[in-house]
Amino acid sequence: MTKRFVLLLAGCLAASAGAQEREAPARLLPPPAGVSSELRSLSSTPPANYNQGPETAEGWAARQRASAESGARKAHAMAERLHVHVTSKTMGGVLVFDVTPALLAPTRRDWLLVQVHAGCYVLGGGEAATVEAILMAGIGHAHVVAIDYRMPPAAYFPAALDDVLAVWKDALKTHKPSRMAMFGTSAGAALTLEAMLRAKAEAMPLPAAIGLGSPMADLTGVDDSLATNAMIDNVLVAPHGFCDAAALFYVHGHDVADPLLSPIYGDLSQLPPAILVSGTRDLLLSSTVRVHRKLLEAGVSAELHVLEAMSHAQYLRSDTMPETIDVFRTVAAFFDRYLSP
Amino acid sequence: MTKRFVLLLAGCLAASAGAQEREAPARLLPPPAGVSSELRSLSSTPPANYNQGPETAEGWAARQRASAESGARKAHAMAERLHVHVTSKTMGGVLVFDVTPALLAPTRRDWLLVQVHAGCYVLGGGEAATVEAILMAGIGHAHVVAIDYRMPPAAYFPAALDDVLAVWKDALKTHKPSRMAMFGTSAGAALTLEAMLRAKAEAMPLPAAIGLGSPMADLTGVDDSLATNAMIDNVLVAPHGFCDAAALFYVHGHDVADPLLSPIYGDLSQLPPAILVSGTRDLLLSSTVRVHRKLLEAGVSAELHVLEAMSHAQYLRSDTMPETIDVFRTVAAFFDRYLSP
Cβ contacts of residue B74 below 8 Å, gap of 6+? Predict the structure, then answer.
């Protein structure tokens, strides 16, 4: 057969399966009307430089420092407003931040929530790692420990996962797993799932529940929302942006389909009850809903929440936005069902 | 102040709130990879004539007949494959179809599921009204009654709602509300919510649970996915298409923000536990997730499911597609929790 005929045949087969690539035309996005004014103000044009990542390890390290510094400033302001106290210590040899609210909810007094920070496996470290923990401590009135896991260029896959496991092992010495949850957003949600797979494989006790915000659960590019929400999401913006580049920097040449990098391909049976959060504009909406269905298929209790017009993980952007308060109250109430039954 | 200054001021205020309209550029949509081959084959280019609705009552009547005929053919084929028996009768003076599977699940033997068909308040009547009932009866192994409610041009708002209520009142004579659910898709899900609001106002017993597939719950155009999923959804396709025109034909000059037309604006407290289903490509994804959050805010148990790469209500397109089986099994299992506790 000629090459042309083969191409024609392939085209016909794709067409008969309705499986052609197609173009979605440009469209106007009005400011979302059914959201808070704070979220509306966060829905502006995506940054033009979303796909300009550093090209050297030194470049990444500089970006990492900048992210840690701006995140630390944000965390300090949030901690003050939410009356949350942050100290640092080590657990299992790993640097963590102990995050305690001025007011602990009586029914959540003996909980320990282990939080794994976001940032594409490369950013959001140092005190920036405490942002999501501060929001949960301040809004959920519970004790949270935030893990400042190692990241490239200091250490590559599976260093971050090793650190999460080391902290979890140490937490088991002082707290009952039935009074603990693990949670995180984006790469932090992926690391939470990866930690569950690893802990299960090592026959360690699992927490009573997990929280997964917009999990970056599939690095193979299968998610449909990578196309449908491209340039609509104004945080991750589009595939092949800085976040994918950062994740690949961590991956360090390993197979991205490894369940310890793309946990959607792992055996999710026997995982703890999970709550998942995403937004209709989230570039990882598909990743979130696919993990939800995979968990249900595997017999795991899993609950999905999708916020109107929210781009990737925007509930981490503000501690006063009604959507942020909704998310953390909803996750804390979900943990109530399993940690304080 | 000059008009020009007022416009400038308005522009500045909008800009300071980050609330500008913005353009999302054209993008390529690859065939979705993380779905069944059947759903992938349903993800082709939207019909170009999606926004060419009839302009006269006679035109709508002709389109209505065509929809009833093609739907009836589809329903017959599905009923045969799924071993479901369909007969017609009246309940409360309204034409209904009694839909019974060859095999009733033992725990679902005394249920009655009341189904309200889709079709933008104008289409999908006659035997076409049985499609979703047949899928539920065949996959969920339960007894379903499908309401062939009146539609324009024969009768306008609130005739459809009146008919749903008349059937519900009649069903209460033979079945316990604790063994009944009401469910539907799109306009059928909106009518289900509207029926709950009306039944609550009239102090009638409510069913033990409701099922809401992609509810057309807000006719005021607030949903963000009307913009973000425009021309990505290949069923409803975009706002101001045939479906909006059909709904407005039913509305017949009433206020579209009336909770009996846009039930998201109703008082949703005390509604039965609800399961909601949508897809990431659904033009009504926002409507679905907004109803979910409104129900939760109102203290109602509500559970959300979003299917990867699914356009509006595509689970009604095939009785063999894995996603269809997933949806009806999931909804039936949700009903188990409340109808057979």
Answer: B128, B131
